[in-house]
Automatic annotation (TrEMBL):
Transmembrane segments: none annotated. PANTHER family: ASPARTOACYLASE (PTHR15162), SUCCINYLGLUTAMATE DESUCCINYLASE (PTHR15162:SF7). One of its GO terms (molecular function) is zinc ion binding. It comes from Kangiella spongicola. SUPFAM superfamilies: Zn-dependent exopeptidases. This is Succinylglutamate desuccinylase. Transforms N(2)-succinylglutamate into succinate and glutamate. Residues 53-249 form the Succinylglutamate desuccinylase/Aspartoacylase catalytic domain. Pathway: Amino-acid degradation; L-arginine degradation via AST pathway; L-glutamate and succinate from L-arginine: step 5/5. InterPro entries: AspA/AstE_fam (IPR050178), AstE_AspA_cat (IPR055438), Aste_AspA_hybrid_dom (IPR007036), SuccinylGlu_desuccinylase (IPR016681).
Length: 341
């Protein structure tokens, strides 16, 4: 293989499309780093210079969320061609190649509900649910990557998405539950520099990718919603300019991690979960339009959830709703009620 020619013409998304069923691992040594193609959509970059920063960039956990995949693909091309300097340990993940090919959110099951070992519950059904083995493979990749780091190294995981639902705040992030750890101000500042000025502080363990890396490897992890879902080739990259600039600075290790609370002075909105609304019967029903935007707010006294046994009446002006969904089975979440911190 002619390494120079391979790098010059390389497009990560095309490469993934051509190797949906996987490929044998291979490694290339370039001037400043070594890159290993571990598997389809799993690339590890190791700088030859010493670095204490370990960064995971995942995109395409949902296959129709194209903008983050385009951004990451361009960054990989620039790394391979010397247009972007690598000064950190970097793991790049295209989460769901098969769903990416079809530009569907998922194939058989929501991949972002399969992490933190949740895939084990479905292992016997792995032949009928393709996301099971993919979740296992992605977890292995993250484990192998972060296991190379030391206690004092910086571990960061940005799981990049775009949203299918409109949002009152176009760009927002979900900071996973931290168990006994404190929120890191540097994460809020990174988000603000990405153009993300709204953050939801999650309230309990979950099965999303960012919680997995946070819980198991004490990484500074976050799920980032960068805008609206659009087909490949239809994203206005200017809408993502701040995020892309910050991501590139992180890769170059030129980003200054700021542990102050400047995000507060700059108007970042933080929300916390007040209540989780569950479907408790066939009669449970959210009294909202199907297309209601995330973070839409209500006045005190509004009956947000109708149910003969467990209705929910808005208790305070300004309570807002996130992820409303009337089409869930009994026992599952219909929405989150959130309030600004």
């Amino acid at each position: 293989m002619n390494t120079q020619e391979f790098c010059k013409t390389f497009n990560l998304l095309d490469f993934v499309r051509e190797h949906l069923d996987g490929h044998q691992p291979f490694t290339m040594a370039l001037e400043d780093f070594v890159v290993t193609f571990h598997d389809v959509g799993i690339l590890e970059f190791k700088p030859k210079a010493e670095s204490q920063q370990y960064l995971v960039l995942s995109a395409g956990v949902h296959g129709n969320e194209t903008a983050p995949m385009e951004i990451v693909s361009d960054m990989v091309h620039d790394l391979l061609n010397g247009k972007l300097d690598l000064r950190c340990h970097l793991l790049v993940l295209i989460g769901h190649p098969k769903a990416m090919l079809e530009e569907n959110r998922f194939i058989d099951f929501n991949l972002n509900r399969m992490f933190n070992g949740e895939w084990k519950k479905y292992w016997e059904r792995r032949d009928e649910i393709c996301e099971v083995e993919r979740a296992k493979r992605l977890e292995e990749a993250v484990k192998d990557f972060f296991s190379q780091s030391c206690a004092n190294d910086t571990r960061t995981h940005l799981d990049l998405h775009t949203a299918i639902r409109a949002s009152k705040y176009e760009k927002f992030a979900i900071y996973p539950y931290l168990d006994s750890r404190e929120h890191n101000p540097a994460v809020f500042n990174v988000m603000q520099d990405c153009g993300v000025n709204t953050i939801l502080l999650y309230h309990k363990p979950s099965t999303v990718f960012s919680y997995h890396s946070s819980h198991n490897f004490k990484a500074d992890s976050i799920t980032v919603e960068l805008g609206k879902v659009k087909p490949f080739g239809e994203n206005n990259r200017e809408d993502f300019a701040a995020a892309e600039k910050t991501l590139r600075q992180l890769v170059e290790a030129s980003y200054n991690f700021d542990h102050t609370t400047r995000y507060k002075a700059n108007g970042q909105r933080l929300f916390k979960v007040k209540r989780e609304l569950l479907r408790v019967s066939d009669d449970s029903h959210l009294n909202v339009d199907d297309g209601l935007a995330n973070f839409s707010s209500f006045e005190k006294g509004f009956e947000l959830l109708s149910d003969p046994e467990e209705p929910y009446i808005v208790e305070n002006d300004g309570e807002a709703i996130v992820f409303p969904n009337n089409n869930v089975p009994i026992g599952q979440r219909m929405a989150l009620v959130v309030e600004e911190v």
